[in-house]
Design goal:
By secondary structure, this protein is mainly α. The protein has 3 helices and no strands. This is Flagellar protein FliT.
Length: 105
Amino acid sequence: MSIALVDRLAEAGCALAVALDRNDIATIEAAAAGFRAATAAVGGAGGWRDTPELKARIRDALADVEAARLRCAYYGDAARRRLEKLATIGANVAAPIAYGRQGRI
């Protein structure tokens, strides 16, 4: 495994955390795709115990990845709480049917 792969993973984790903070779905999806690719590259490489420097870089990268994971958990929980609050005030009304039996609105 190369240090460049680990650095790419750390950068992808930071990019995902920044995207989550921006709250823009297109940016989040792009960052998630980059993170997925970086994770796959690191997972397929193996040999992470080769050097002490590589172990240290992996520890640093894991800290960045953990920050992104915590943001995902936080924002997911916040969305769940909002939905529960809406449900308690009766906002769970079914959406109207867009088309009638004859295919017209």
